[in-house]
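Hi V.,

You were right to ask for the full record rather than a summary. Here it is.
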Amino acid sequence: MSASAMNRSSVLTIAIATTWLAVLGSLVISAQDKYTVKVPGGLAFSEFKTYEGWQAVSMTRKERVVEIILANPLMIDSYYAGIPANCQPVPDGAKIAKIIWTPKQDAFFPDATVPGELRSVDFMEKDSTRFAESGGWGYALFDYDAGSKTFKPGTKASTPPQGNNARCGFACHSSAKARDYVFTEYGKR
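Predicted structure:
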């Protein structure tokens, strides 16, 4: 092979590699980092970075959704101390996450329902100063779009409908005011 042919081959290889790197780079840049999403009023997905590894508190099965409720270590300690059932306040820094899926039939056990497509992730964070207007709790619902694999703050079109600010869950949770706005009991083990 002549030097000229090798040079053209090298240039072509470099051009193809550069094009692929540009395409892959744009995909990486355009992919959403879920921890950059924020609800107006202050509550950000990044405040819950470790939620995937939190301890399970309880689960809920409804006709259209399967939910698991998780809590950070401080909230777990609160549950062990009898909160919220004893009507004592939850300490600042406690956090709760609820992951919501569409239910599907288990492939191996047809009578069992398991999580299907991810629908949304809800968060609660106790900060008496920051969220004084909503009983000391900040709330967020982040809808998941499976097509784009991205999260966005919940809206009035979400299920359930949400005002998209850090106080969005306050009206609903007001019925549990005596329990410091926490519905979920820690499931017996």
